[in-house]
Backbone:
C-alpha cells in the first residue's frame, strides 16, 4: 500500500499525495488516547477508556500516550499504522483547531489520506471542564471517542487543492506596526498597498511627545520611518482611504478601496500651508486631542506624509479664499470620492487603537471640571509642536500647574469599563511625570495607582528614576474628585492603601491615564475580513501563544493593537512578524486550501435551484442544459449551508456527509446494561 | 409507553441522572467557544456531546430529529453571532430554518427547553459554560425526553 502511494506521489507531486481510494476495504481503526501530561490523564482514566474503545468493532489497536503530539507520540502512531495496517486513525487529545494539521501530516507521511484522521477533543471539551467529576469525564470521553471511531470508518479521501498566490500585499492601517509590515515586505521585493484612513500615515505614535523608557522624541524617530515608507518604490500609500469590500480567499483577495476627496490635487499641492493662513474658519484641532485650533483647510501636522493639505468640507464655508491663495492651483472643490480595485495575495490588518474616552461616564469628573485632562491631552501639551508650544498649562486659567495628580487605570482594570490591563498606561504616566519634573523641577507630582506594571527592558529602571526625581507614588484609586469652585483646583479623596489612611489631596491639574480600546471601525474590518472578536472587543489571533499574528482566515494577519493592547516595540515586532508570515505565501506563490467542499450527485439532483441562493460565494452554477446544479470547487468554501437546504439529498458536504454526522449522533448514546 | 413516560420523570429526580445533550457547534465560533471554556476551566455538567460542523448553516433538521429519536434529552444549535459568520450569512439561514424546526419540534410535543439556539463567539468560553449549565439544569427538572428509546443512555 505504501509503495503504491509513493509511486503516485512521485508522478503527480502534491496533487495525488496520500490517495488510496479503496472504499470497500475493511476499516482498520487505530485509536490514540493522549494524556496531555496530567491535563487529560489527571482526570480521565485513559487506560479504562482505551480498554473500552478496544472492544468496538473495527478498532484494531488502541494506545495511550503521555503526549501524543510529541515526537515519540507521533512515532507511535506511525509505527502502529505500519504494524496493524491501519487505514483510519482516531486521535483523542486536545482541539482540532490547534492540532489537527499536526496529525494530518503525521498520517500522510505514512501514505494515508490526511482526511482519514478523526480528531476527538477530550481535553478542552472534557477533562478541563469536568475536573472534579472524574468518573463522568471518563464516561464522556468513551462516548466522544466512540462517536469519533464510528465517524472515522465513514471518512472518505479528499484532496487539498493548491491555489496560486498573487505576490502583492495589502496593509490596512499605517501606524507604526503597519508601516513596519509594509517596509519589510517592500524590502523583500513585494508590491505593497498601504491603506490609511487618516490623511497622513504615522498613526497614534505621531501624536506622542516622547516615548518610554528612553524618553526619545516620538516624531523624531517615527518621522524618518514615515519618509522611508513614502520613498520606497514598492509601497503605494493610499492615505485618506478606506477598505470598503473584500472578496476572495488566500492568494486572491479582491479589495475595493475608497479614496475620500481631499478637495485638492495632491500632485499639485506642495504642502506650503499658505491656504491655511488665509482660511477664516477655525475648529478644534483633532491631532492635538481637540486642544487649540486648526483651519478648515489644513496640513494634518508638520511632519505629515504625504505633506499635503486637505479641506474639511463639513466646516468649510466655501469662501474660496484658499483657491486664491494657492499658487499652484491645486484646489478643486468638486472633487468626488473615487475607488481603486486591488488584487492582493495577503492582507495585514494593523488597524490600531484609540484611547478610552472618559467623557460620557465623566470618570473622576472628566468633562465636568476644567482641570482634569487625559494623558493624551497632557502629551500634546508637553509637545513643543503642541497647542501651547510645550508649556504644560491648566485649561481653566492657562497657568502652569505646580501640584499635578495622575490617576492610573482609567478605562482599564475596571469592571464598569474594561476589565483588561492596557499594559502601557503605567509607563506613560511615569514618563509624563518625569518629563514635567525635568522641565519644571518645582512641580510636585503624585501618581495614584492600583499596581505599577513595568515588565520589559529598562521599564523598571525608568520607574526607579521617577522615584529618584521625587515623583510620589500613592497606592489607591481616588474615591471622590471635586472641583473647588473658586480656585478651580481639583480635590481628591483617596485611600492610601499602603499606609492604611484616607488622604485629602489638592491638585492644580489632574491627569487621567486612559487605557487602550478598540479602534473605530474595527467591527467593519472584522466583518470584511471575516475575523472573530475577542472578549476585549479587539480582533482574535489564530492562537494566543503559537500563532499570535495569524488569524483563522488563511492569508490574513494582524499586527499591533488590532489584537489587543501593545507597546511600540511589541507592535513593531508584530509588524515584522506579519511580513515574515506573509512572505511564506508570497514567495511560494501558492497556498494549500482545504479539500472540504460541497459535491452534487447529478443522479439525484432535480434542478430545483434551492441551493443556488444559499451560497454567499456564488459557487453553485446552474447547468441549464442538464438541468442540474454544479459546484465550482475553487469558489466553494465548504460551509455546507447548501447541503442542509437541498430537498433531495443530492448535495453532500465532503468530510461532513450526512452519514458521517449521523454516525456521530447515533453513537452519542448506548444501551445501558440493565441492572438485574 | 404511557407507563414508561410516567415513570421517567420520577427516575429523573434520583440524584446523579445526567441528561444527554447533543450540541451542534460551528467550527469558527461556538466550537471555539467550547474550547475557550476549556482553556478558562469553566466547569460544566458532563451532559453535553459536541458535534462539529463547519457552519451552523450545515445543521439539517434531519440531524436534530435523529438526535431526538436516538435519545437526546436536548439538542442545541449554536453558531457565530449574527453578522460574524465566517461564511458571510450562514447563521442567518440557520435562524430562519430554526424557526420552522422549533415549530415542528413543539408540535411533536417536545418541551421548548429541549431545543435551543444560541450564538456564541470563539472567545465566549464563560457564556458557553453558563449555557450548558443552564440547559442541563432545565432538562434535569424536565426529566428524560419522551422520545428516548427504552434502555438508551
Residues:
Amino acid at each position: 500500500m505504501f509503495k503504491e502511494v509513493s509511486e503516485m506521489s512521485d508522478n503527480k507531486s502534491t496533487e495525488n499525495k496520500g490517495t488510496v481510494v479503496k472504499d470497500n476495504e475493511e476499516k482498520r481503526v487505530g485509536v490514540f488516547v493522549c494524556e496531555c501530561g496530567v491535563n487529560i490523564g489527571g482526570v480521565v482514566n485513559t487506560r479504562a477508556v482505551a480498554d473500552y474503545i478496544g472492544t468496538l468493532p473495527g478498532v484494531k489497536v488502541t494506545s495511550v500516550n503521555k503526549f501524543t503530539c510529541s515526537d515519540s507520540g507521533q512515532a507511535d502512531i506511525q509505527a502502529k499504522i505500519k504494524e496493524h495496517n491501519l487505514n483510519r486513525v482516531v486521535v483523542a487529545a486536545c482541539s482540532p483547531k490547534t492540532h489537527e494539521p499536526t496529525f494530518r501530516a503525521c498520517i500522510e507521511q505514512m501514505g494515508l489520506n490526511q482526511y482519514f484522521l478523526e480528531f476527538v477533543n477530550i481535553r478542552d471539551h472534557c477533562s478541563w471542564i469536568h475536573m472534579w467529576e472524574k468518573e463522568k469525564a471518563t464516561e464522556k470521553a468513551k462516548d466522544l471517542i466512540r462517536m469519533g471511531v464510528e465517524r472515522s470508518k465513514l471518512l472518505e479521501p479528499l484532496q487539498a487543492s493548491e491555489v496560486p498566490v498573487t505576490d502583492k500585499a495589502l496593509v490596512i492601517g499605517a501606524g507604526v506596526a503597519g508601516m513596519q509590515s509594509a517596509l519589510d515586505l517592500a524590502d523583500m521585493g513585494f508590491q505593497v498597498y498601504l491603506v490609511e484612513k487618516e490623511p497622513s500615515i504615522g498613526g497614534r505614535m505621531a501624536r506622542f511627545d516622547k516615548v518610554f523608557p528612553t524618553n526619545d522624541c516620538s516624531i523624531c524617530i517615527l518621522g524618518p520611518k514615515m519618509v522611508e515608507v513614502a520613498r520606497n518604490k514598492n509601497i503605494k500609500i493610499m492615505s485618506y482611504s478606506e477598505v470598503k469590500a473584500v472578496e476572495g480567499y488566500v492568494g486572491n483577495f479582491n479589495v475595493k478601496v475608497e479614496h475620500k476627496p481631499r478637495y485638492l490635487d495632491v500632485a499639485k499641492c506642495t504642502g506650503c500651508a499658505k491656504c491655511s493662513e488665509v482660511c477664516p474658519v477655525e475648529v478644534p484641532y483633532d491631532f492635538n486631542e481637540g486642544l487649540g485650533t486648526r483651519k478648515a483647510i489644513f496640513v494634518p501636522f508638520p511632519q505629515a506624509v504625504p505633506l499635503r493639505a486637505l479641506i474639511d468640507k463639513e466646516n468649510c464655508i466655501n469662501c474660496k479664499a484658499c483657491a486664491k491663495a494657492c499658487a499652484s492651483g491645486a484646489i478643486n472643490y468638486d472633487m468626488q470620492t473615487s475607488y481603486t480595485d486591488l488584487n492582493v495575495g495577503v492582507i495585514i490588518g494593523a488597524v490600531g487603537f484609540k484611547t478610552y474616552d472618559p467623557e460620557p461616564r465623566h470618570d473622576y469628573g472628566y468633562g465636568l471640571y476644567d482641570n482634569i485632562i487625559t494623558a493624551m491631552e497632557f502629551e500634546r501639551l508637553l509637545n513643543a509642536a503642541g497647542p501651547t508650544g510645550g508649556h504644560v498649562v491648566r485649561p481653566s486659567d492657562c497657568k502652569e500647574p505646580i501640584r499635578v495628580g495622575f490617576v492610573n487605570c482609567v478605562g482599564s482594570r475596571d469592571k464598569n469599563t474594561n476589565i483588561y490591563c492596557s499594559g502601557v498606561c503605567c509607563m506613560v504616566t511615569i514618563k509624563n511625570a518625569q518629563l514635567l519634573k525635568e522641565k519644571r523641577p518645582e512641580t510636585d507630582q503624585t501618581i495614584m495607582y492600583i499596581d505599577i506594571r513595568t515588565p520589559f527592558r529598562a521599564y523598571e529602571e525608568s520607574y526607579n528614576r521617577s522615584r529618584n526625581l521625587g515623583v510620589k507614588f500613592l497606592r489607591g484609586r481616588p474615591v471622590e474628585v471635586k472641583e473647588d469652585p473658586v480656585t478651580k483646583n481639583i480635590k481628591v479623596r483617596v485611600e492610601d492603601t499602603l499606609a492604611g489612611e484616607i488622604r485629602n489631596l489638592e491638585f492644580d491639574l489632574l491627569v487621567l491615564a486612559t487605557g487602550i480600546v478598540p479602534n473605530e471601525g474595527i467591527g467593519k474590518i472584522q466583518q470584511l475580513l471575516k475575523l472573530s472578536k475577542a472578549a476585549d472587543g479587539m480582533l482574535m489571533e489564530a492562537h494566543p501563544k503559537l500563532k499570535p499574528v495569524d488569524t483563522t482566515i488563511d492569508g490574513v494577519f494582524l499586527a499591533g493593537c488590532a489584537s489587543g493592547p501593545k507597546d511600540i516595540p511589541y507592535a513593531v515586532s508584530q509588524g515584522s512578524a506579519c511580513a515574515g508570515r506573509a512572505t511564506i505565501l508570497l514567495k511560494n506563490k501558492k497556498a494549500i486550501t482545504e479539500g472540504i467542499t460541497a459535491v452534487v450527485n447529478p443522479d439525484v439532483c432535480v434542478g430545483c435551484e434551492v441551493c443556488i441562493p444559499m451560497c454567499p460565494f456564488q459557487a453553485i452554477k446552474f447547468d441549464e442544459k442538464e438541468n442540474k446544479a454544479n459546484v465550482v470547487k475553487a469558489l466553494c468554501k465548504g460551509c455546507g449551508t447548501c447541503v442542509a437546504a437541498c430537498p433531495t439529498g443530492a448535495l453532500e458536504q465532503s468530510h461532513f456527509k450526512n452519514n458521517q454526522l449521523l454516525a456521530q449522533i447515533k453513537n452519542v448514546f448506548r444501551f445501558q446494561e440493565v441492572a438485574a | 409507553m404511557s407507563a414508561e413516560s410516567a415513570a421517567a420523570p420520577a427516575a429523573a429526580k434520583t440524584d446523579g441522572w445526567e441528561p444527554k445533550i447533543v450540541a451542534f457547534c460551528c467550527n469558527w465560533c461556538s466550537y471555539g467557544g467550547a474550547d475557550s471554556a476549556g482553556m478558562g476551566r469553566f466547569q460544566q455538567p458532563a451532559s453535553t456531546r459536541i458535534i462539529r460542523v463547519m457552519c451552523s448553516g450545515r445543521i439539517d433538521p434531519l440531524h436534530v430529529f435523529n438526535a431526538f429519536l436516538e435519545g437526546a434529552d436536548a439538542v442545541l444549535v449554536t453558531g457565530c453571532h449574527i453578522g460574524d459568520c465566517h461564511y458571510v450569512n450562514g447563521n442567518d439561514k440557520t435562524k430562519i430554518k430554526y424557526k420552522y424546526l422549533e415549530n415542528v419540534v413543539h408540535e411533536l410535543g417536545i418541551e421548548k427547553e429541549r431545543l435551543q439556539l444560541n450564538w456564541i463567539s470563539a472567545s465566549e468560553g464563560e457564556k458557553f459554560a453558563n449555557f450548558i449549565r443552564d440547559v442541563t439544569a432545565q432538562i434535569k427538572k424536565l426529566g428524560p425526553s419522551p422520545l428516548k428509546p427504552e434502555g438508551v443512555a
Remarks:
- The mean pLDDT of chain A is 93.
